[in-house]
Specification:
Blueprint: H1 6-26, H2 72-98, H3 102-128, H4 140-148, H5 153-182, H6 186-211
Helix pairs in contact: 2-3, 2-4, 2-5, 3-6, 5-6
């Protein structure tokens, strides 16, 4: 068999080398793929001060709650009721400590308990609405208390019944009835309505005791 010419052998050798190079390039590993991290979600702050201010806020920062302003008439009621309530407690303590009359003593102790409870309830409502109550007794009740402390025991019994059992409760009833009828704040209005029954009870007791000449006397104290 005749051998191929040299030119033909050169071409064939070149083709063989090219195929070998192609096969080697196919075996080179591809670079590793890098996974892209998902985009981070925007951070949400837990601090209420950085939250949106578009939601309505009421007292204490609670959305949707609103106390509303307290009308002037309601404020007058609160101040007068607190002043009279403190005077009733102080007068009752004075009478209970000095009287020798069992009936007066029992009535005074009941007045002290009831008016202390009423005063505490009024203060709770006022505190919720940001209203400061008077801390000292003023006006007519202050003068009546000063006079009461200078009287003898028998005169004190009568003055306590008249000034704080009858007169003061009649004025308090008129004050609370007006608030229950004309008050603008629903909480103070309801408070006045609840308290009226106890005020009327005290008035009836004082009138009954005065009519019965204060009952028996256990002797000077």
């Amino acid at each position: 068999m005749p051998l191929p010419p040299l030119a033909t052998l050169g071409v064939l050798a070149g083709l063989a080398l090219g195929c070998t190079a192609c096969n080697r390039s196919d075996k080179v590993p591809a670079p590793p793929k890098v996974a892209l991290a998902p985009a981070a979600a925007p951070a949400v702050s837990s601090d209420p001060g950085t939250a949106s201010d578009t939601a309505p806020r009421g007292m204490g920062g609670v959305a949707g709650a609103s106390a509303g302003p307290v009308a002037g008439g309601d404020r007058v009621f609160v101040s007068e009721a607190a002043n009279r309530g403190m005077a009733e407690v102080e007068a009752a303590q004075l009478a209970a400590g000095r009287t020798g009359n069992a009936s007066i003593k029992g009535f005074a102790q009941q007045m002290e308990r009831d008016h202390t409870s009423v005063n505490d309830e009024l203060k709770r409502i006022a505190d919720q609405k940001g209203i400061d109550l008077p801390s000292t007794i003023a006006g007519e009740p202050r003068g009546q208390l000063s006079r009461l402390s200078t009287l003898s025991q028998a005169d004190m019994d009568q003055a306590f019944l008249q000034d704080f059992g009858i007169d003061a409760h009649q004025k308090a009833i008129a004050l609370f009835e007006r608030e229950a009828r004309e008050g603008q704040d629903p909480d103070f209005k309801a408070f006045a309505e609840r308290t009226l029954a106890k005020l009327r009870e005290h008035l009836a007791m004082a009138q009954q005791m005065q009519t019965g000449r204060v009952g028996s006397t256990a002797g000077p104290h």
